[in-house]
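Our preliminary data section would be incomplete without showing what the modeling component actually yields. Below, a chain of 310 amino acids is followed by its predicted structure, encoded as tokens that our downstream tools consume directly.
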Amino acid sequence: MHVRHKLKTNMTKKENKCSVRFEPVKIASVYEVLDGISWLDEPDIRQISQYSGIDPRTAGKVIKNCIQIGMVNELTPGYYKLNIPYPFKGSLEQKKAVLKESIFKMPLIASLRQFLKFGEDLENSLRKAATVQKIENYNKTSLDPLIKWASQLNVLDMSIQAEDFVDEGLNHKKLRHSEKKDELVVFLSHSSKDKPFIRQLAADLTERGVLVWLDEQQIKVGDSINKAINQGLIESDYFVIALSENSVNSEWVERELNSALIDEIEEKKVKVLPIKLTNCKFPPLIRDKKFADFTGSYKSGFEELIKAIK
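Predicted structure:
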């Protein structure tokens, strides 16, 4: 009877567990983990831990939180990839801005902000928001770490609106252009299959004083590419799209590289600059644009790219 009662108690505890739980870890560790995921090829927790210098347990907690926020995707069990463009060699402020916007866009946070605007206190607002988002067996303690991150990043400031992230990014860009005229930011859009090449290119650009955002072309069906890459575009001076047999045959290029995207990019005063990695057919929309050719020589292609940028 005693064993039966213990099993029943354990099952009840499991059944009553909150369906969403955020882990209590410091925000500072997030950027180290995201750096690792952006640079490595679909790494596991062990690789991310080794790269970032963070113990595996903490790295695992950070990844779990980032998956729930929507910043990281588990492609196959135990292997991870970024869902968002990331300022790998950008400033801490840029990295904070990416995390802040990602939390702001969470449906749970959107609901929470609505109830706060109705004049509800934080505790009641969180409970009601969790109910709206169909979080079962609500437990405030399970969501407290997320609220702590949101508070530290000022996400719960009711004066903040979605368009403010655009304005903030544009202001950062203007300030950079006035204070650091020689500093440029490049948004590197590429296929994950070309990541070894892109790693070398990112390192060489950084050595030349160019800040780099990394974006693996993995927009999901139904997603808006403009929204998905918005933050990186706002901060960037050049949208460099790496064209190869891997990328031109991808759904990303076939479906999303359209006139609306090109217009959106250029409206933000970002110049589209293709780079050719292998002999491949250019998408019609950018066929007439100047490009840097890496097919014959990496060195000459890189110098073409630097010349076009600077």
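The chain has 16 helices and seven strands. Residues 30 and 62 are 6 Å apart (CA to CA). Preliminary results of this kind motivate Aim 1 of the renewal.
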